[in-house]
Amino acid sequence: MKILYINALYAPHIAGGAEISLKLIVEGMQARGHEVVVLSLAPEGGLRSEWVDGVKVYRAGLKNGYWPFAKERPGRFRRLLWHVRDRYNTSMRAYVREVLNAEQPAVVSCHNLVGWSISVWDEIHHAGIPIVQVLHDMYLLSPNSTLFKKGRTAAHQDALSRLLRVKHRRASRGLAAVVGISQSVLGRFLQYGYFEQIPHYVVHNARDIPAAHPPRTREEGAPLTVGYIGTLTAVKGVEWLIEQFKASGVEGRLVIAGSGKADDVQHFQQLAGDGGRIVFAGYVDPSDFYANIDLLVVPSLWEEPLGMVAVEGLANNLPVIASNRGGLRETVVDGDNGILCNPDEPDSLGQALIWLWKDVALYNRMARAARPSVGEYLSVERMVNQYENVLSTVTTDHANT
Questions:
Q1: What's the pLDDT band for 154 if we cut at 50, 70, 90?
Q2: Residue 47: beta bridge partners?
Q3: What is the pTM of this model?
Q4: What sequence ranges are listed for the domain Glycosyltransferase subfamily 4-like N-terminal (predicted)?
Q5: Which terminus of the chain, N or C, has fewer Cβ atoms within 10 Å?
């Protein structure tokens, strides 16, 4: 079976968990004897190919107003124009046509289509090839990929999202299958009437995370090192975490790792102040980061499709405090391997920090339960098996029609 994977980015260019998971899937399928090809975006024009760890990867120059993965944030009007074009970017179809003609895949697995737009679906349909869409975020529902607006996740699409996604729901019903990386993200799309009358699947992402150290045992009165790792942006709840850590009075420090838009990072640093209890570590090696904290916090304000960072923390024998939203509820079990907090009740985060600082018996019990609770998510073989089954089913059904 020959498979073309389409995503916004591909290694070594990583914007988030989607790219990490995709590389594992692609290499896993190739290891099983399938032919795999990747089509991704690049800031410069034209189409070129290269080899990345034995995988053929095409890079297509984005035809839109700016490169959306840069650190600087363009002005509001420029962003609006970008999204207007991205609702259906006809100019990106030629790249897809060229790669389809050159590679002749049996099936196309679409992942994050930001920059590509759903115009690629029509080009693939025109070639008579079945499409499996994998849902990593809310891009097909909202131009900001989160449905997050004015400090909270919207219960419904706003007027702009409806306008910029007017064709998407109907077009989604013409695909061969859809895969959600969690029941939460799949359910949100089904709620809006997407992907009706086509096969639905849930395949949780996975990571190969060795047990780097045994569970910690905290002692009474010991300081607590709290960690956050990820994109530094409002939707991830970084401001909420900083404010609650400062107000909690927890003895210890907060280590914030990751990067973001320059103005966001500056805002968070100003909010943290100069007391020394809150450290901005920038980019760090995740294994080193987890080895040097006692507790991971995932304070996302939006409906995280899965929240793989929580899995990484749990796999490293760390209790996790997480938002009671989205796919985080599928990995963090309140009172078992961590504590779920409600962003609508801001003090719930500070209270959770205090509990795990003061109640060492609670902390130690959660630390012991952490890694065993995410065994499913530590099997890359399981993830690849499930995707292989989905793609094999789709190609067989297509051949029989």
A1: low
A2: 60
A3: 0.86
A4: 16-208
A5: C
